[in-house]
Automatic annotation (TrEMBL):
Keywords: Cell projection, Cilium, Flagellum, Membrane, Transmembrane, Transmembrane helix. Signal peptide: none annotated. This is Flagellin-like protein. It holds the Pfam family Flp1_like. InterPro entries: Flagellin/pilin_N_arc (IPR013373), Flp1-like (IPR031564). The lineage of its organism: Bacteria, Bacillati, Bacillota, Clostridia, Lachnospirales. The keyword Cytoplasm does not apply. The chain crosses the membrane at residues 26-45. Residues 17-64 form the Putative Flagellin Flp1-like domain.
Length: 75
């Protein structure tokens, strides 16, 4: 009988601890809110982001072309 009482008490303690622990739920909500903020900012600054990426890729490809052209000249 004592073993059953002990198991019942352990189960009640674990259930109470599980119901009080809400860390996982808060992290999920915070993650969803941060993703929402990122999406709103991306939409708000869409034009500037496109312009920045276009400039970056233009410079990257121009630099890559210059490097390969310099490598071909030295051979």
């Amino acid at each position: 009988m004592n073993a059953l009482m002990y198991l019942k008490l352990c189960a009640e303690v674990k259930l109470a601890k599980f119901l009080r622990d809400e860390k996982g739920e808060v992290n999920i909500v915070a993650t969803v809110v941060l993703i929402g903020i990122a999406v709103v900012l991306a939409l708000a600054f869409k034009g500037q982001i496109e312009e920045l990426l276009t400039d970056l890729f233009t410079k990257i490809f121009k630099t890559t072309g210059d490097v390969t052209k310099d490598a071909n000249v030295s051979h």
